[in-house]
Specification:
Rossmann fold; about 350 residues; about 25% strand; transport
């Protein structure tokens, strides 16, 4: 059984500051990847996710610890051995646009694979291999072959790169933020593709900062913070019963999309003579004061989370708050919540950011 394993891997980078100190990017990271599973590697920016991907692809050398593939240290590979390793372990990265030379047709990425790994394969056999790889990623050859990069969508470019990996005898796919630059509908297509590849026996490391995407696609989840694993286990257990405080904090930042949302800003809430409390989407409770709310002052909002840096589209109406307060009657009353100005950025219709007054 093919396995890719990290054992106590640490990585230090020398600081560019005057003192030239060492900055830890990874701290004794250990886990293994097995066929037919997707592992989500989740953490905020700078947590070391991409460094792990680079170490697995031998684009970065560990300071300590080992990475083994089928029991052999990948640091020992050279020449034909290293070439064979890359035949079985491939990476697809965040920005598909930078993977193509704009002066060449996009399917040139297939030609590079052919010249390196299949120089003796005939044209008919090679064409059949390309068609099979494109079919595996749900691409029509007529839609992508012979086209320049600018003629393809981001989703087509990304799936073309995955098809390139499938031309090889790939066993492990390192998918580093591969859908973060794609639109919502294309993201779902690529996620479903990963699930299909898993069902065919691939081991996939899905590197992301978006917990909702990780929950959708993965069998196991690893939570990374400051280069160290703080929680690891079956996805349903990590999400359903998190043990580490950092994991709990990340999960509270994810909107509970399965819950029905009221059209009102925070719905109708019970109010007593002593005031009111409102429970938000993430379970937090905040005291509120009812204010005059004009019905015409409505807008939809999205929030960029400070921890995960994931844009969360919130299906809520924001209502303008007028000065002054008023008494709230007992029973059910509607209240509105105001955002502090530093947390609110208004975008004009032409997508220009409005400067705060």
């Amino acid at each position: 059984m093919t396995t890719l394993k990290l054992d106590q891997v640490s990585k230090l980078y020398r600081s560019t500051s005057r003192d030239g100190g060492l900055t830890p990017a990874l701290r004794k990271v250990s886990f293994e990847m097995k066929p037919g599973e997707v592992i989500s590697l989740i953490g905020e920016s700078g947590s070391g996710k991409t460094t792990i991907g680079k170490v697995l692809l031998r684009l970065a050398k560990p300071t300590s610890g080992t990475v083994t593939f089928d029991g052999k240290n990948i640091a020992s590979y050279s020449g034909r051995g290293l070439k064979d390793y890359y035949r079985q372990v491939q990476g697809v990265f965040q920005d598909p646009f930078s993977s193509y030379n704009p002066i060449y047709r996009a399917d040139r990425v297939f030609d590079l694979v052919r010249s390196s790994y299949f120089p003796n394969v005939g044209d008919k056999e090679w064409s059949d291999k390309i068609d099979a790889a494109l079919d595996a990623v749900a691409l029509n050859p007529g839609d992508v072959l012979g086209k320049y990069p600018h003629q393809l969508s981001g989703g087509q470019q990304q799936r073309l790169l995955i098809a390139r990996a499938l031309l090889l005898d790939v066993k492990v796919l390192i998918a580093d933020e591969i859908i973060s630059m794609l639109d919502a509908s294309t993201r779902v297509d690529v996620l479903n593709l990963l699930v299909k590849l898993k069902q065919k026996g691939l081991a996939i490391l899905f590197i992301t900062h978006d917990l909702s995407l990780g929950n959708y696609v993965s069998d196991r989840t690893i939570i990374l913070r400051h280069g160290a694993i703080v929680e690891m286990g079956a996805t349903e257990k990590v999400y359903g019963n998190p043990q580490h405080e950092y994991t709990k904090m990340l999960l509270t930042a994810v909107p509970e999309l399965h819950k029905k949302w009221a059209h009102e800003p925070l719905g109708a809430v019970p109010v007593s003579a002593n005031g009111a409390t409102v429970t938000g989407l993430n379970g937090s409770v905040a005291d509120v004061i009812a204010t005059d709310v004009p019905a015409s002052a409505l807008a939809h909002a999205s929030i960029l989370d400070e921890i995960t840096h994931a844009e969360q589209v919130v299906k809520r109406d924001l209502r303008a708050i007028f000065g002054g307060s008023r008494a709230v009657a007992s029973g059910k009353s509607q209240v509105a919540v105001a955002l502090e100005p530093p947390a609110l950025h208004e975008f004009e219709p032409d997508h220009l950011v409005a400067e705060p007054e």
